[in-house]
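Sequence of Dienelactone hydrolase family protein (Roseateles albus).
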Amino acid sequence: MLLCACSAQAEKVQIASFDQAQGQAINLLGHWFPSKAAAQAPAPAVVLLHGCGGPYDKKGALSERMLNYIDVLNAEGWHALVLDSLTPRGEKELCTQKIGTRSVTMTERRRDTFGALHWLAARADVDPARLALLGWSNGGSTVLASSNKRHAEVQAAAGLGIKLRAAVAFYPGCEADLKRGYAPLAPLLILSGGSDDWTAAAPCEALVKASEPQGMAKPQIKVYPGAFHGFDALAPVRLRADVPNGVTPGAGVHVGGQAAAREASRQDLLSFLREHLN
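Predicted 3D structure, token representation.
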């Protein structure tokens, strides 16, 4: 089971986003967790991209989910960086905001991701050739938006030397990149719930099928039967009536863990990252 050992210690860092305000780069808040298990420097590093609720719990500390995955990644010898895209922009959450009204969109989050990758690549203890993205929900969509070569900004970032070895998206919304067409910058794994009524699996399956690898490995997708949005959580499934988006707008969405999907997705995640980062 994915339980938190909470052994990791964070260092708060400032990261310059590729996004700007009044001609100046927006400074993001990052939480840096170097791995003590890294055999030697430089080591791989993973950027953790939060969902629409942000990276924190109700008390303002990093969420249990984030701490769980940080422990898992650090134990593998990989550094971890949690990126906060909301607080520097005066937002606490996006979940209750309709998609078309949000001030923090995939454009801002993609530029934040590039800033994080740039920051990691400059560190002496990080191998710039072994960087990965890991995101959940809105952060999973950010993984897609940051690794799709059909976006001009992704092409431009690659031209600046920003490299990506692997990308993993837990229950992302895939409609936007399905419509645009998906050409992967790096090997991609999508992990979706078969009963997800917030970000359905079907568009992600269609994205994988229609993707244009262009010399890259075909994206992979795992769909866990009967699993809802947030299936890797420990909390039970509940209805969130305050979410205006979803498969049936206005009807709310179901969110919560499923033990079988939680265990399977952890193994699928680790197998994929071990293949590409080690």
